Amino acid sequence: MLSLLVLISGGGSNLRSLLEASEDAEYPARVVAIGADRDADGLGLGEEFGIPTFAVNYGSYPDRAAWGDALLEQIRIWQPDLVILSGLMRLLPPRVVAALSPNLINTHPAYLPEFPGAHGVRDALAAGATQTGASIIVVDGGVDAGPIIAQERVAIEAGDSEAALHERIKLVERRLLVQAVLDIANGHVNLKEHSPA
């Protein structure tokens, strides 16, 4: 059974999909803890699904490195097989990435390497693209630059708002994430083969 620790910043819609999938006894992964970099709404899913939660508030630390060290300390308590960044809107310090990779994956609302960064949906619209997508990657030292595990295209429709497009992407992201975790748990995806150079 693959043990998962999921890090969030917001409502945790991808996290909910994982929690619902893991309620199936046949699904070979379980979320052991949920963490956040703030008092995120998605931490409420912990109570709903009976999963321990923690917050390492970024604003409580003098810099990103100190915050990362505190976050890593919390993660290590749970000894997860896989750490998932699911809407965590903060770059992990290099020391944290080095400690966890390649067992550290991220969801991103674009068809990487197109539109990396915090505003992938907005950037796709601003570029006048006709399609974007969703990607699951192994986290490396770059910004959304790690090896791609899974991705799928999403069409951009005429008149799409950022919110409407993001909702359609999230549907794909959730499905890809649940499948990627299944593939990792079943050995169909070997993260060591996807390890950043």
Show unreliable segments: none
Structural class: alpha/beta
What is the C-alpha radius of gyration, as a whole number of Å?
16 Å
Report strand order across the widest sheet. Answer: 3-2-1-4-5-6-7
The backbone outline, from C-alpha atoms, is globular
Count the helices. How many? 6
Number of strands: 7
CATH class of the largest domain: Alpha Beta
The fraction of residues in strands falls at: 15-25%
Number of domain units: 2
CATH topology heading of the largest domain: Rossmann fold
EC number: 2.1.2.2
Protein name: Phosphoribosylglycinamide formyltransferase
InterPro entries: Formyl_transf_N, Formyl_transf_N_sf, GART
Site (Raises pKa of active site His): 144
Tell me the layout of helices and strands.
Blueprint: E1 2-8, H1 13-21, E2 29-36, H2 44-49, E3 53-55, H3 64-78, E4 82-85, H4 94-100, E5 104-108, H5 120-126, E6 131-138, E7 148-155, H6 162-185
Parallel strand pairs: 1-2, 1-4, 2-3, 4-5
Antiparallel strand pairs: 5-6, 6-7
Helix pairs in contact: 1-6, 3-4
Key attributes of the depicted protein:
alpha/beta; Rossmann fold; Formyl_transf_N; single chain; 6 helices; seven-stranded mixed beta sheet; phosphoribosylglycinamide formyltransferase activity; 197 residues
What does this structure look like?
The chain has 197 residues and is an alpha/beta fold. It folds into two domains: 1-100, Rossmann fold, CATH 3.40.50.170; 107-197, Rossmann fold (3-Layer(aba) Sandwich). The protein has six helices and seven strands. It has helices at 13-21, 44-49, 64-78, 94-100, 120-126, 162-185; strands at 2-8, 29-36, 53-55, 82-85, 104-108, 131-138, 148-155. The protein has a seven-stranded mixed sheet, with helices on both faces. The longest helix has 24 residues, at 162-185.
